[in-house]
Specification:
Order of helices and strands: HH
Number of helices: 2
Helix content: 55-70%
Number of strands: 0
Radius of gyration: 20 Å
Structural class: mainly alpha
């Protein structure tokens, strides 16, 4: 998988966790009875996506600098 900048992954994590928790709370308390299950399910999906991006953030390997572009000390 391609390397993603840590700040970008952190923003995605926060976005999915926040919307997921908000969706679960709204789905269980505020939503009309016909929409309760759907909103709660969408909130759970967002929390799952947040967990996926957390996994990516914790397991991705630091991008190594390109050695071809590095100058030598003798030059």
């Amino acid at each position: 998988m391609r390397y993603i900048e840590p700040t970008r992954v952190k923003v995605l994590m926060m976005l999915f966790y926040a919307t997921g928790v908000m969706g679960i709370i709204i789905g269980l308390s505020v939503a009309p009875p016909s929409m309760t299950m759907m909103l709660t399910f969408m909130g759970v999906i967002n929390v799952g996506l947040g967990a996926f991006f957390t996994f990516i953030f914790l397991t991705q390997i630091q991008k190594s600098p390109d050695k071809r572009k590095k100058k030598r000390k003798g030059d």
